[in-house]
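Fold this complex.
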Amino acid sequence: MTAMECKTHIFIGYYGSGKTELAINYATQLAGSSQPVALVDLDIVNLYFRSRETKDVLAAKGVEVIVSPGNLAQADLPALSPAILGVLQREGLKVVFDVGGDDAGATALGRFVRYIPEGSYNLFFVVNTYRPFTRTKAEIIKALRAIEAASRLKVTHLVSNSNLGGETDRECIVEGLSLVKEVAGELGLPVAFAGVPESLASQMEAELGDVPLMPLQLYMVPHWLREERWVITDPRSKLRDARGK
Amino acid sequence: MAKILMKGNEAVGEAAVMAGCRYFFGYPITPQSELPHYMVKRLAEVGGVFLQAESEIGAVNMSFGAAGSGARVMTSSSSPGISLKQEGISYLAGAELPVVIVNIMRGGPGLGNIQPTQSDYFQATKGGGHGDYNLIVLAPASVQEIVDLTIDAFDLADKYRNPVMILGDGVLGQMMEPVEIREVQVNVPEKTWATTGAKGRKPNLINSLYIVAERCEEHNLRLQAKFKQMAKDNIRYEDYLADDAEILLVAYGTSARIAKGAIDRAREQGIKVGLVRPISLWPFPYEHLAEVAQKVKSVLVVEMSAGQMIEDVRLALNGSKPVDFYGRLGGMLPVTSEILREIEKLAKGGRSNG
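Structure:
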């Protein structure tokens, strides 16, 4: 069975590792092979930049987003939709989980463990080596173990997703992958793929060796940020502060 | 220098650690909770103290104690929690204690919601609690600027023995951007006034109680002289394409970033528009704004509120130019195209009161 043939695909990791973007891209890729796909937004620890914000866009691509109904979608409540149990038991449906950050977020996953039997799922542990607390091999393994304990599931794959947001470059992706491979070697786990922004994907194909590349279309960048060409060091802006009058 | 990807909230925490802060007292509230989360982990690594207080009131008063004993200390919250802290902040100002206070603003009034707003401007810049006092209020517009201003905030708090506020909104707290992590030369001035145990010297007293009116007036006059000096020395702003602007936008924080997108698009159409972004909201750059506005035809203030900073803009311009307003409320963000539409109205000689 190849990774994609499993019923359930779970993206888990520390805050800012890129779980949401990866889960969305993975779900649209699954849907692209004309299978029914549901994306479960299990992020109940943080209320900004969640996959539920892309519900309509994803519906158009054949991905059903499962989230608390109506007004509850924006509530500051740890509320889970009853529809999650439905999609886990619906035959012929692939389910992608976008889990909340850290072990706190992974705790919500533990509630579904008895519907996710061993061998029926991929648990992708997503790592961005440019994020605090996952910058070294020891830190990454510590984070992975904490999340496994909270979710009561075993990680099946590592996913390398090293990035610096808008400043992501080739070097950052390659360096991140090399550290993730080291961790994978130590833990005896495969590296499922490496996330690469769409804009860099074509030039990086050859550089990742035996690790497949997942080109990422970024769904969570807010509208105003897409239009923004400004950076703080824009030569057109004049900054005055108390020191540099 | 090494860059890492950080959330605004985490960046406040890391900057505080870089600036030598080893004490954090807080109480969770969205959308700033990643800051206490970060401090739990980070302060443990550097031998500091994180304490989740029983409430916001507890947290601000623990900060009073820590600052009184000479420590670099921070507390944080979001709008409703900052309202709860106001009594304590007034006490900090009265007792002249250096504490860095972070407000990552969310929707109000009341419980409002957890979405980003800028509707605590009045509260932050006009005192906030009871009595005659001011905080230095710094408003970053990027995650890197959060780092830089937070480091400065600790130095300013110590320099003036006064609380300093970092004022951001939910978007800035939550968004991730690359930041440079650098070595900071931490220079904490000697705090001869701190209550560190009076062995071999006269006891110090940290206090804001002055029962005799004459003494309380003297205390207030001294504070006012200090605030005057603080106001003189700490004006910060950014000008963006303001030199030849005929239409001037004034916005801070996230609104300013969105406004810049609209300005770029208006410039492509040949409309001469620029921006003044106040970085210090107190002291407000009144004189600078008046100077830049001399050459412009009209001024548009953009805020994520019903219009609060606009009052300071009007004070700065003193009736010399028409001042219009575009704002979104309740956690809604302005959109580039909406601001562009308002700029176009002004360019055609109309008014904008979106």
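DSSP finds eight helices and nine strands in chain A.
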